[in-house]
Amino acid sequence: MKNNNYYLFAVLILMAFHSYAQEIKPQYNATVLEKRNDPAMNRWRENRFGQFIHWGLYAIPGGEWKGSIEPMAAEGIAHKLKIPGEEYAELIHKFNPVNFDPEKWAAMDKAMGVKYVIITTKHHEGFCLWPSKYTDYDITSTPYQKDILEPFVQAYKKAGIDVVFYYSIIDWNHKDYRSKIISPADSIAFGQYIKYAKNQLVELLKNYPDIKTLWFDGQWEESYKTNPQYGWEIEQTLRNFKPDIIINNRVRLNVAGMIDHDSNGRHFGDYDASFERKLIEDTTGLMPTFDWEACMTIPVNTWGYHKDWTINGHVKSPRELVEMLVKCSSMGGNFVLNFGPKPDGTIRTEELERAKVIGDWMKVNGEAIYATEGFPYPKPVWGYYTQKHISANEKIVYLHIFNRPATGLINIPIQKDEIVEATLLFIKDKIEITVLADGTAVLRLPAKQYSDIADVIAVKLKM
Ligand code: FHN
Q1: Of 18, 242, 250, 369, which residue is the least packed, with the fewest Cβ within 10 Å?
Q2: Is the pLDDT of residue 16 over 70?
């Protein structure tokens, strides 16, 4: 009897411990705990440079509604200016991008050097760029009528650029969408909306089989946060449908309502896409152990087309944008630059100009970006390092020189006798190398600076 009591006591302790352990381990935590190493993910990582395209009905007002200006986020004008739903939805009768030429877009992007493109199939406004059998609020109800996505995917595929579909969980047009659940009826409606979203996502993967990655957004509203099972279900459905699909971290939440990262600080999905309009902080030489991507606007903050994008302040120069791309590569991340096409399907001049300058730089220096890894050494004052392993015992370390030292000399943390050669990518000229007392190499830069943005030196090493 006494033994039985001890036994019961032990079981109770174990049960209590078990439920306690469950309490501190919120459900629906991150599931992909290490970097994926399959071909799809390796390709995503090697691509390094992407283009974001925000395009929808919001391009028509371009940040202005009946004389009122929304200075930020032109794509959010409906919400920001509280435009009545029916009134906003009338824009569908005006969407007629007669000058949309996806081959032209793809050629521009190829020349800019991007290896993948993310397009907003449906942003928060709810309008769908493809003919969806689940709604009329789609391209077929516009004067244009024709599918945007199919020719888009084909043109980019022909150009060798991977296509990623952006899909917003938020939907300001759908009758069943709720930002908050206040009543049981809301709960039912929201469940219906999630079914709609799931159907559309499977429809997208079915109809456009070339899609490699899904880029989710809009997971932060209370309705979705308090129902973490929905993000889980969406993710599982898509992974079952297409096992090598890549999904960013913005579709899931855990029971504690954590978005982007779970209670253990691990990003949801296959990579961390929460670096929006900001880059990862300087890691003082320690490389992040996870995959990540930063997405960036050219003005301070508008993703969709804005008639006056200087309105909210500084507009980034090509040099600043290239530096951001290099900074991301130097810390093992991808960089995605956003364009917001005009309602007629053309690209604004300022974006075309930037695409050209960035592309010219990439043509010479792209090898120092694509398929590179970060370099685990604190950031030097003159710029950034990237590196690439080219064989079992050879690698190239790239020096991206944004701030040329007045002395023209650069001391690098590499022993001189490990170096096979150092070459300036711009003219393929060899760089003179001397040595310090501790054996580390000192490179003498050519008298002339070749690029207005950054000259890059490739230092080949044998190991
Ligand atoms: O509200 C959106 C915004 O319009 C844009 O799509 C960005 C892209 O990362 N995501 C949301 C804000 O986080």
Answers
A1: 18
A2: no
- How confident is the model at residue 285, as a pLDDT? 82
Instruction: Tell me the β-bridge partners of 399.
Output: 385, 457
Q: For residue 453, how far is its CA from the centre of ligand 1 (angstroms)?
A: 29
How large is the average pLDDT for residues 106-112?
A: 98
Give domain status of residue 393, yes or no: yes
Give the number of other CB atoms < 10 A from CB of residue 441. 22
Probe target for ligand 1 pocket from 52, 221, 276, 277, with the most ligand atoms within 8 Å of CB: 276
Ligand 1 is surrounded, with C-beta below 6 A, by: 73, 75-76, 217, 276, 295, 303
Tell which atom from ligand 1 comes closest to the C-alpha of 276: 9
Show which of 336, 355, 373 is a domain's final residue: 373
386 in the same domain as 367: no
Give me the phi and psi of 144, to 5 degrees please: -70, -40
* Alpha-carbon gap, residue 31 to 445, rounded angstroms: 48
Q: Is the pTM for the entire model greater than 0.85?
A: yes
Lowest mean pLDDT among 26-30, 166-170, 358-362: 26-30
Residue 269 has pLDDT above 90, yes or no: yes
- pLDDT reading at 25 higher than 80: no
pLDDT of residue 312: 87
Same-domain pairing of 302 and 423: no
Domain count, the chain: 2
- C-alpha separations of 245 from 9, 87, 140, 271, 332 in Å: 48, 37, 28, 12, 21
Spacing, Cα 276 to ligand 1 middle (Å): 8
CA distance 165 to 405: 43
| 216 C-alpha to ligand 1 centroid (Å) | 10
